[in-house]
Hints:
Elements (H helix, E strand, L loop, with lengths): L5 E5 L9 H11 L6 E5 L2 H10 L4 E4 L16 H7 L3 E4 L2 H6 L4 H13 L3 E6 L3 H5 L3 H12 L11 E5 L13 H26 L1 E5 L7 H5 L6 E4 L6 H18 L1
Parallel strand pairs: 1-2, 1-8, 2-3, 3-4, 4-5, 5-6, 6-7, 7-8
Amino acid sequence: MASRPFIVGNWKMHGTRAMLSEARAIDRAAQRLMQVEIALAPPFTLIHPVRREAEQIGVGAQDCHPADGGAHTGDISASMVADAGAGFVILGHSERREGHGEKDKLIAEKAAAAFGAGLKVILCCGEPMEKREAGKAVDHVLRQLKASLPDTIEEVGERLTIAYEPIWAIGSGEAASIEDIVAMHTAIREFLVKTFGEEDGTAIRIIYGGSVNAENAAEIIAGDEVNGALVGGASLSAESFMNIVLAAQDVINNQS
Ligand code: PGA
């Protein structure tokens, strides 16, 4: 568990300007919960409005293109989302890997572009159920991570967050067990320390995603090597999202 848990709401393809009231309510509540780092990743269309209205929370994008600009109809570059007010970008989400055929190499290129534009990166990884049942979940995730990271990242530390999201747990209502989460996060931590050295490798945050809700959040966030949560469905209303943030705050209070 981190000294300051990082709780990120991934709104996916949800939200029109009518949802700005939820972002405002989250931001207002966040101002009283400074022991937790809170961020939202709304759709591209809401990045600027959310950034303009929110004072406390981080705001990020859910994807970016690897190029800085050019003839790429319908795409959005890292520098564009930074210009709109994003401070980070989620990359390699399984919904993009599956729905858009994104491969590890492309994700590594996107990550390099995002770092180049001054954004932080939340890099997602996670195994399908067949790999878990075959006892190959850790191998799968570490291979995926290795291939989805750019060759060099300067001063990586907190600029990179890894989100472990088992595919079968996303949106299913069934989170992974705390034992499986801790085992995976521990393996990811070892990989990060080996790859980036002790200081950076321990500063990179590893957060869990996949059916996190107010009921299971405390147990998950208190887990060893769990530095926060990436929350989909339960981030769509201020009430359910803030209940997760409150659970994270309780975990911090209970340990001190
Ligand atoms: P979920 O989504 O919380 O709805 O399972 C998590 C995610 O996909 O980031």
